[in-house]
Amino acid sequence: MGMFKALVLNQDEGKTTAAVEELALTDLPDENVLVKVDYSSLNYKDGLAVTGKGKIIRKFPMVPGIDMVGTVEESADDRYSAGDKVVLTGWGVGENFWGGYAQYARLKADWLVPLPEGMEPIRTMQIGTAGLTAMLCVMALEEGGVTPESGPIVVSGAAGGVGSVAVAILAGLGYKVSAITGRPETESYLRALGASEILNRAEMAEPARPLEKQKWAGAVDTAGDTILARILAEADYNGVVTACGLAASFKLPSTVMPFILRNVRLQGVDSVMCPTERRRVAWQRLLTQLPENALGDIAQIIALSDVPDYAEKITNGQVKGRVVVDLNA
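The chain above was modelled as a monomer; its predicted structure follows.
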């Protein structure tokens, strides 16, 4: 094996720089599984890391990329052998440990999940952390007793990665989905994914009273701040609101009223440290319950050299759906 390409982040006088470099296998961290990476993806967190707009990376140099899929080349762990297809999301990879924006990665076996049988590698990254998070939100809604018969589900940030997949999964399962977006041009895209109603983000971000008219049996929120506060105020009795993002803010200007008067549940959803067995269940469900035809609309493919430009775009709210990074393009 010779040299390989990787996107490497460094800091220069407090400013994050990103450049594609040639590395050797000896440059990789000392972990127990060597993976040849086929694809990664670009998530909002990746955008913050690559641009330096968020305090995601705290030690440099760093290879970012919180997702990856590829083939095991070498393994010192009995769970994996050369030739096995594996997927990785989360665990601090791409933040605290070298990640997926490289043609090779050395990883802990504990971080890996076998690729579900029948799932193509590129489809896995079309789904990625965003899709895994969306499915975990759907599972949390179901576990809270929310069914298609319970009433409509509202999804914030619906044109983004998590939101797009959530809309497609929920609609495919028979839920009535209302999609919140600040980009009117995405309406036809969201309706094609299955949204039955499009809501204006600016209106949903208006400060709410402690309790508003009941509208939602459940929700998938990626925004936080006043949007999440309004969703809580509008949730039905026994409603379940899943929170998995802070695209608007980490703040929550709400009251306890929805919780104690309407029995509303606010369920946090984390995909970074999610237990492996739950990940396996979620990936298997994504294989069968995310409509195949949705992915063509949701995803676009870029080369490693395009990542800095797209990282800027995703942090500015200019990216629709999912972005797959082809490590061999």
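The CA atoms of residues 126 and 296 lie 9 Å apart.
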